[in-house]
Each structure stands twice: as C-alpha cells, then as structure tokens.
User: Which sequence fits this backbone?
C-alpha cells in the first residue's frame, strides 16, 4: 500500500498565546512547536500499522518553511519511510495548503491520504476535505477506526452522539481522530535512522490568497471568581438562575 | 444572496438548523441581501424555517441524498448555490460540515472560515468573520477575499431570535453523481443532546476517582438536563467514552453553563472550554488553577458538594 500522511506544525500545547502589540499577529517569541497531535498520534501511527501488516510505504508531507524539518524528522523517527516538504516561507490558509498537497499527490497513486482531524492551531478541519475535492477522492472526516481488506476500506467515523460505519474502495482520503491508533514514542534507533532517511524539498505552486487574517483578539479575562459556601448549594442555584441566567 | 444549508437532526429541524438559518439571516442583513435556505431531502417542516429568517426554502429531493456522502452533498450545495446566485454559503461546523465545508470551498475556489463564532461584519471594506483559533486561546478576524464565500458556524455561537413567518418552499432539481461511499451502519444515542450542541454541561475529572463513582456527575446532569463530559485522563483511562473528552485535543465546547468537578484546570483543558458563558468549578484544592477561569467556585469535596447541588437543583425545578 502506498500511504501519504500530511502533517502540520502547531505551537506546543502549554503555549500561552500572546499577541503582538498591534494585535495583528501572534507573538511567536519563545514559542516551541510540535507536530500536530492528531497527525502524529493517530494518522501517522495507523498508516505505519497498515504498512506493517500489509506492506508498502509511508511518506509524510508538510507544507511549510525549512524550520519545520525538525518536526518532519520526528515523523521519520516514529517510522515513516521518507518525507516531502513543500517549501513555503510563510504558513498560508487552508485552501493554499490543500492546493499544494493536491498538486503534489496528483498522479502518484496513493491508496490512502491521511490527515489529522484538525490542527490545534487554526482548528479548521478543512484541508483534508479540500485535497479530496481537488483529487476527486472520497473523504471521511474524524475516523476512529479503519480496517482494510484488499482495496476496500471500512471506516468508522465520529458523528454527534454516535458513530457511522462506511465502506469505500481505495483510493481515499480520511482524517484521524482519537481512537484510530495509539501514540508511539520514537526510540533511539528510530531517531538515528531518521537522519539518513530522504527528505525531499519541492517548490510550491502559485495560488492566490482567498483569505487574510486581519488581526487577533484574546478572550475577555474572567473577573475574580465568586466563592460559594460548600454547605449552601441553594445559593449557587439562585445565582445561576438570577445572576448568570443560565438555568 | 446568502444560502444556508439547513441540516435536520434525526429527521427534524431542531436547534442546529434554527441557529444556522438565524445566523444566515443576520449575515444577509449585514450585506443587505436575501436569505434563502437549502434543504436536502424531504424533512417535514421546511416552511417553519421562515420563523428564523429564511424567505425561501429550496428543497432538493433525491434518493442519492438519503444516506450521507460528502461528495454528493457538496455537488448538491455547490450547484444550488450557482443556480441561485448565492454569494455566501453557510454550513454547520459539526461532523457533517467538517466533511463538506472544505470540499465546497475547494470546488468553488472560495475563501472559507471554518468554525465561525460571530456574525460577519464589514470592516475596513472587507467581509470579515471571527473564529476561535488555538482551541479558543485567541480569536482571529478573517477577511474573505473571493466573490463567493463559505462559512461554517460553530454551535451555540449566537442568540437565536425568531423573526419572520412562514417560508415559501420550492423544489430544485440538481443532477447528482453516484456516491462512492456506502453507509453500512448509522448509530446515534437518542435522548441526549450531543456535547457540541449542549447548553448545559457537567464534567468530571480525575478527582472523581473512578467510573464507579460517576453517578455524582450523572445525577447532577440528569437533574439539570445537561450533557456529561470529562477531562482527557478520564477518557484515556476508559472511565468514560472518548467522545466525552473536552479540551484542546478533544471536543471544544461553548455551553451556557459548564460545571467542572475534580478537574484541575490544565491549560489544555481550559483551551476547549473557556469560551463557555458561565463556569462553575468544584475542587477541594483552593489553589487549583481552574478557579482563575471560573465565575463561581466551590472549595470542597465533590462527593459532598455534588449531591447537595443535585438536591438544590431538584428543589429549584420543583
Ligand atoms: C505559526 C503559524 C502561523 C500561521 N499563520 C497563518 C496566517 O498568517 N494565515 C493563515 O491563513 N494561516 C496561518 N496559519 C495556519 C496555516 O498554516 C494553515 O491554515 C494550516 O496549514 C492549516 O490549518 P487548518 O486549521 O486550516 O488545518 P486543518 O484543516 O484543521 O488541518 C487538517 C489536517 O490537514 C493537514 N495539514 C494542515 N496543514 C498542513 C500543512 N501545512 N502541511 C501538511 N499538512 C497539513 C494535517 O493533517 C491536519 O491535521 C499559521 C499556522 C501556524 C502554525
Ligand atoms: C499534548 C497534550 C494535550 C492535552 N489535551 C487535553 C485535553 O484536550 N483535555 C484535557 O482535559 N486534558 C488534556 N491534556 C492533559 C492535561 O495536561 C491535564 O493532565 C488534564 O487535564 C488533567 O486532568 P484532571 O484535571 O482530570 O486531573 P488532575 O490534574 O489530576 O486534577 C484532579 C483534580 O481533582 C481535584 N480533586 C481530587 N479529589 C477531589 C475531591 N474529592 N473533591 C474535589 N476535588 C478533588 C484535585 O484537587 C485536582 O485539582 C493534554 C495534555 C497534553 C500533554
């Protein structure tokens, strides 16, 4: 099986997001980056499991600047065979990113293109569906189980309050949610081997901007907490009803 | 024209559809254009979407729409938008929307905002939509630069107001491709509001100490008519199902009321819940970080406080 796993970079989860003084940008001073958890924990690992059971190759792909190579190397250390980075100097919007991935993957006959459920930075859940549309592939979002039998896939996806099971013939694209696989920690041997695995850098294709981020704001800070006597829950109910007006 | 995909919930138009249509109405008012709704299938009650602001409801009825296939739905919405000359298309940011929004934006090469949480505005001459980013740690103002624009709306984002009367319902014919996917099982728990749509949520953390103690959480949830949630370690230990896990790597929610018991308030947990309107924290440790993000706090043992709160709620509800 020929498998492609698209991975993005995101600020480490404990990052306190700060804005630049003019509010136009995120202040990235001191921000540490990681591979987006859904991509690393579930998409990449399920792809590796399929390769281990049925043979094939796992390629990881990132659209981003050269700084992202350390994140890509981590994917290689976890077990991907090779990697591609589509070289852009700045992160751009979902449609631009999807266009780059689609143009790279077109004609390369991947059986499955894996995505994460969403990036934990821009939280769009769009890139995978966009790539699927550009390549005319079926796409299943929020996959929590994937079983293969020859060229036929059975995918379980999360839906509100339940789940849906779908049968579909490859080639397909899907996004990985919690449950699809268990996180793997790279070992020393993997880390050493990753240094020698191929990482191809490809030029981006031109694509116009369809969106632009004009600026950012932060959520309003909460005022100080109102403490309620633990013996007096009638008072809490009264406040929730009369003051907060939520019950 | 603003065209909104009115999605039924288990065969009827409920809160999801009402909020979407009302959001579309408000968007149309900003632009000074008409608001039309699109219904895929023969769900009854389409004319009643008028009450939330749709002037006309266009209905596409076809056997190909009976089971969900994202590619087929995308063609239906894209072609309807083209035929009707829609310039803004609105979808839900839920499991359906997450399978369609990206496809639709790619098909129409339209700028999109996925997971918007406020009515668009014209700002500095640009059509601008706000959405939470970094799992709610910040909001981005996104300008959409294309003629046709796609927005998906996060649940519980606006106050739903009933405006108009009945909508005119007309049928629309669209050629649909054959589906490549086959739904072999569709299973939803009834009787419980799914987390992303829930207005009231009661959530438990590691402080609840094991699945055998969860009735303190579920009893309160039942008394309130709330949905239950949990922190990540709770789901990771299989004390509760994965779909209850809220936070940065779980479900992001914005209910009117979030009650957190035995949850410390780690930054990754807060990221997914801090846009809740009112937060109540119950923790025995007065130094627990969650108190800084709370509106109301109770310092105490949850095994005493929660049953007391449940009783108080029952008394209040009479
Ligand atoms: C530091 C930083 C700054 C940014 N600045 C901007 C900005 O100024 N303007 C702007 O519009 N966007 C910006 N972005 C976001 C931008 O890079 C894209 O929007 C992002 O790549 C896709 O995010 P999304 O939430 O749309 O992805 P989703 O649709 O949520 O992503 C789903 C999946 O698609 C795949 N994927 C997503 N992105 C990539 C990628 N780059 N390479 C390979 N696979 C990918 C992953 O599998 C991911 O799990 C920034 C991101 C970062 C980390
Ligand atoms: C990459 C990454 C992503 C993550 N994503 C998420 C996420 O999406 N969601 C999430 O929740 N976490 C996430 N986490 C985990 C997060 O960092 C915390 O570890 C987790 O939220 C802690 O869960 P908790 O509050 O239930 O447990 P703890 O931190 O152990 O807190 C338990 C609390 O219960 C209180 N308590 C104990 N007994 C009682 C009692 N009898 N009465 C009252 N209070 C009591 C204690 O004082 C304590 O504050 C993530 C971590 C990482 C590294």
Assistant:
């Amino acid at each position: 099986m020929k498998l492609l796993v698209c991975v993005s970079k995101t600020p480490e989860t404990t990052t306190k997001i700060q804005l630049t003084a003019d509010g136009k940008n995120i202040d990235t001073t001191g921000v540490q980056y990681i591979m987006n958890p859904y991509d690393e924990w579930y998409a990449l690992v399920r792809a590796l499991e399929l390769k281990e059971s049925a043979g094939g190759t796992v390629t990881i792909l990132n659209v981003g600047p050269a700084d992202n190579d350390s994140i890509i190397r981590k994917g290689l250390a976890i077990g991907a065979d090779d990697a591609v980075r589509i070289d852009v100097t700045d992160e751009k919007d979902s449609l631009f990113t999807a266009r780059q991935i689609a143009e790279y993957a077109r004609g390369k006959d991947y059986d499955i293109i894996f995505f994460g459920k969403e990036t934990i930075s821009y939280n769009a859940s769009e890139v995978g569906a966009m790539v699927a549309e550009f390549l005319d592939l079926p796409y299943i979002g929020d996959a929590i189980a994937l079983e293969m039998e020859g060229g036929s896939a059975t995918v379980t996806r999360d839906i509100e309050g339940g789940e849906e099971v779908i049968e579909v013939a490859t080639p397909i694209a899907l996004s990985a949610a919690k449950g699809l696989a268990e996180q793997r920690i790279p070992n020393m041997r993997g880390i050493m081997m990753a240094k020698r695995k191929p990482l191809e850098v490809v030029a981006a294709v031109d694509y116009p901007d369809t969106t632009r981020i004009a600026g950012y704001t932060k959520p309003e800070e909460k005022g100080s907490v109102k403490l309620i006597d633990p013996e007096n829950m009638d008072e809490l109910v009264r406040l929730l009803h009369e003051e907060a007006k939520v019950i | 024209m603003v065209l909104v995909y009115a999605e039924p919930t288990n065969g009827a138009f409920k809160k999801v559809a009402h909020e979407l249509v009302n959001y579309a109405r408000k968007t149309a008012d900003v632009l000074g254009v008409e608001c039309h709704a699109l219904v895929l299938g023969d769900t009854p009650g389409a004319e009643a979407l008028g009450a939330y602001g749709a002037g006309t409801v266009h209905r596409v009825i076809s056997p190909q729409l009976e089971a969900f296939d994202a590619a087929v739905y995308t063609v239906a919405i894209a072609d309807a938008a083209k035929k009707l000359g829609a310039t803004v298309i609105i979808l839900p940011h839920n499991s359906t929307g997450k399978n369609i929004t990206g496809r639709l934006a790619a098909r129409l090469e339209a700028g999109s905002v996925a997971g918007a949480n406020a009515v668009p505005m014209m700002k500095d001459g640009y059509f601008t939509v706000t959405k939470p980013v970094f799992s709610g740690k910040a909001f981005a103002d996104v300008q959409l630069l294309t003629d046709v624009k796609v927005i998906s709306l996060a649940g519980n984002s606006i106050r739903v107001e009933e405006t108009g009367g009945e909508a005119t319902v007309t049928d629309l014919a669209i050629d649909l491709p054959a589906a490549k996917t086959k739904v072999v099982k569709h299973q939803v728990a009834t009787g419980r509001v799914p987390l992303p749509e829930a207005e009231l949520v009661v959530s438990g953390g590691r402080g609840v100490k094991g699945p055998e103690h969860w009735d303190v959480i579920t009893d309160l949830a039942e008394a309130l008519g709330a949905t239950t949630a949990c922190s990540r370690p709770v789901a990771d230990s299989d004390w509760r199902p994965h779909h209850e896990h809220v936070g940065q790597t779980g479900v992001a929610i914005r209910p009117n009321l979030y009650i957190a018991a035995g949850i410390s308030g780690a930054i990754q947990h807060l990221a997914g819940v801090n846009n809740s309107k009112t937060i109540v924290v119950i923790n025995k440790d007065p130094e627990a970080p969650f108190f800084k993000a709370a509106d109301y706090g109770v310092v105490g043992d949850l095994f005493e406080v929660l049953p007391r709160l449940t009783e108080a709620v029952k008394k209040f509800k009479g």
